[in-house]
Design goal:
Elements: E1 7-12, E2 17-22, H1 25-31, H2 34-45, E3 59-62, E4 77-82, E5 89-94, H3 98-104, E6 109-113, E7 120-125, E8 128-133, H4 142-153, E9 159-162, H5 165-168, E10 176-178, E11 182-184, H6 189-195, E12 198-204, H7 214-230, H8 232-240, H9 246-252, H10 273-279, E13 281-285, E14 295-300, E15 305-309, H11 313-321, H12 328-341, H13 345-360, H14 366-369, H15 379-391, H16 396-399, H17 403-409, E16 418-419, E17 422-423, H18 435-440, H19 453-457, H20 478-497, H21 507-518, H22 524-544, H23 574-585, H24 596-601
Parallel strand pairs: 1-6, 7-12
Antiparallel strand pairs: 1-2, 3-4, 3-6, 4-5, 7-8, 9-10, 9-12, 10-11, 13-14, 14-15, 16-17
Helix pairs in contact: 1-2, 2-20, 2-22, 7-21, 11-12, 11-13, 12-15, 13-17, 20-22, 20-23
Bound molecules: iron/sulfur cluster.
Iron/sulfur cluster binds next to loops.
């Protein structure tokens, strides 16, 4: 089967059993790979009552058909399963080298079920997999875990995905970490790994990924590499990382400040990616075969840390502007702590910011926090709360449940900036109205990685062949809702391919690469149909888990107009945008359920 190794490794941790299973070719053709294919497998394995932290919740690691080929920037992998934070479909993806190495080791993906009696780790070398005792790894931070697993394996070039202390302690903001500080962070899947007592997965191999037309794929790769050299957006993130977007984002009012309640803050410019490059950058880093190289290795000498992975734009916002810390070195250190403990920086920063807001409103007091005073702008407090969250220590045990739980505990559930219990990322739908659809209909809760409408309206990733064109950022009509739904479907396909979303060489190049790898001979319309099929499958999974039409909403906090800044007085018309999106997807606008004819058209009628 071109584009695939054709094998999935199944791991039953309860029984301590491992076996190879042929990849389901129908699933691969329908859902491609990555988070799409992971969702298709998970759909068969869970029901309404499955406990995300119980043995029956599968944890799936899945690469896409371009991973490990010559296609540039296609080195990602997805992690999928039920989220312990949202109780709905959970997914996250990460770059680095783990995804390609998994394929070189002989597998398109892994499906892990059950729960080990004692901590274990999984070693996979050239198609041979075994479970090993993780007694000596348990309790280590994410960096030491990766190093120790490589040493134990005697494979210095093995790639390791693992959890830190946060995942072990079932912190619902726990990430899966790989390749030093890269992370599949969102939706708390690190806690799922912890619940299975699976500390790490190390992979090493040299298998070649079979492709249908190697010459054609090589030609696409040359074209994409040439594009990346010329493309302005690529040049910008090569120079300043994703942090380079911070200044522009501030100008648009896209970067949330003071827990989404302030439109301007002069000090926020201190967190700029350009300053970071000038003052704290050790070097740039790239994932497997990536000509862009947006990765940052920075330092925080004041805290005695010589090497930090990141921070990314999202982390600068979550651990900086949301909590009103404009000391760049302190934010770099906060990001480092999240990497070390294995925490999602977005959800962690946002939950701490909510705690500051509750404290400011008198809804939390020192009696609740064990004597800690929570104040916006206190970097040392942020660092301390990250440590307490990771260890579930004192008030950290409350933060470890996430912001929706924190707001409910304080009696103000509407104050949590979360959609379906996943914290909103650092892009404001008041600045780019189409994001209302991206967040309200995202299969995993508020998600900027499956519907980056800020990128579309800034002209960074147009796909006119698919009807995805830049427009007025405040346009909140039904037509804009349709565009946002198409972008959401397109990015779901990207995450199935597992192609990096900073690589936008155009629809034709992506289609040519997919066809060259798989030999499927798809046309444009099949690309969009696959994206919509994947979104709709995840929707069905969430409906089964209890999602209703009423869940398709933005948090109340983001529907309050701000008095100043780039979004002054603006609030998107969510109802109009959603009406357009339901029409685009073929979902019933009253019930939010996919219509029967939609399921037929997408080949999902049997679900
Ligand atoms: S652009 Fe950045 S995240 Fe994407 S593949 Fe390249 S280095 Fe990795």
């Amino acid at each position: 089967m071109n584009g695939y190794l054709g094998t999935i490794l199944r791991v039953d941790l309860t029984a301590g059993r491992l076996w190879d299973e042929p990849l389901n070719e129908d699933y691969a053709r329908g859902f491609v790979g990555g988070s799409g294919l992971a969702a298709r497998y998970v759909y068969d394995m869970v029901d309404a009552g499955t406990d995300p932290l119980g043995p029956d919740n599968p944890l799936v690691f899945m690469a896409g058909p371009l991973v490990g080929t010559v296609m540039p920037s296609a080195g990602r992998y997805s992690v999928g399963g039920l989220s312990p934070l949202t109780r709905l479909w959970g997914e996250a993806n990460s770059g680095g080298f783990f995804g390609p190495e998994l394929r070189f080791a002989g597998y398109d993906g892994l499906i892990v079920t059950g729960q080990a009696a004692r901590p274990v780790w999984l070693a996979i070398v050239a198609g041979r997999a075994e479970l090993r005792d993780a007694g000596e790894l348990w309790g280590l931070d994410s960096y030491a875990t990766q190093e120790r697993a490589r040493q134990a394996l005697g494979e210095p070039k093995a790639r390791v995905a693992c959890i830190g202390v946060a995942g072990e302690r079932l912190v619902r903001l726990g990430a899966v970490m790989n390749d030093a500080g890269r992370s599949a962070a969102r939706t708390g899947l690190g806690a799922v790994m912890g619940s299975k007592r699976l500390k790490a997965i190390a992979v090493r191999g040299s298998a070649a990924v079979p492709v249908a037309d190697a010459a054609a794929l090589q030609a696409v790769a040359r074209e994409v590499n040439a594009f990346a050299k010329e493309d302005m957006a690529s040049a910008s993130i090569r120079l300043a990382g994703t942090a380079g977007a911070l200044d522009v984002s501030l100008m648009y009012g896209d970067l949330p400040i003071r827990y989404f309640q302030q439109g301007e803050w002069a000090e926020a410019g201190n967190l700029s990616g350009v300053l970071m490059a000038e003052q704290y950058l050790n070097r740039g880093r790239a994932c497997y075969r990536c000509p862009i190289g947006c990765g940052r290795e920075t330092r925080a000498p004041r805290y005695g840390v010589a090497s930090v992975d990141g921070p990314e734009y999202e982390s600068l916002g979550a651990l900086g502007t949301l909590v009103m810390v404009a000391d760049l070195e302190a934010v770099i250190y906060a990001n480092h702590l999240c990497n070390v403990y294995g925490l999602d920086t977005i959800s962690t920063g946002s939950t701490i910011a909510l705690a500051c807001e509750l404290y400011a409103r008198g809804l939390l007091t020192a009696a609740d926090t064990g004597g800690l005073e929570l104040r916006y702008g206190d970097a040392a407090m942020v660092h301390r709360l990250i440590e307490m969250t990771a260890h579930r220590e004192g008030f950290g045990d409350v933060l470890a449940e996430g912001s929706a739980a924190l707001a409910e505990r304080a009696g103000v559930p509407g104050l949590a900036a979360a959609v379906n219990r996943l914290e909103v990322p650092l892009h404001d739908p008041r600045a780019f109205a189409g994001l209302a659809v991206s967040y309200a209909l995202s299969p995993r809760g508020a998600c900027h990685m499956e519907g980056d409408m800020y990128g579309v309206d800034m002209g960074q990733c147009p796909a006119p062949e698919l009807g995805i064109v830049p427009g007025d950022r405040f346009d909140d009509t039904e037509e804009k809702g349709r565009v946002a739904a198409r972008q959401q479907a397109w990015r779901n396909l990207y995450n199935a391919l597992t192609l990096c979303q900073f690589q936008n060489p155009g629809v034709d190049a992506v289609l040519a690469a997919l066809n060259a790898a798989t030999g499927w001979g798809w046309q444009l319309e099949e690309l969009m149909a696959a994206g919509k099929r994947i979104v709709t499958l995840k929707r069905l999974l969430n409906l089964r888990r209890g999602l209703t039409r009423e869940c398709d909403r933005l948090p109340e906090l983001l529907l309050q107009p701000l008095a100043e800044g780039g979004t002054e007085g603006r609030v998107p018309d969510v109802a109009a945008l959603l009406a357009g999106a339901y029409a685009e997807y073929g979902w019933d606008p009253e019930s939010g359920r996919p219509a029967e004819e939609t399921l037929q058209r997408l080949g999902l009628a049997n679900l």
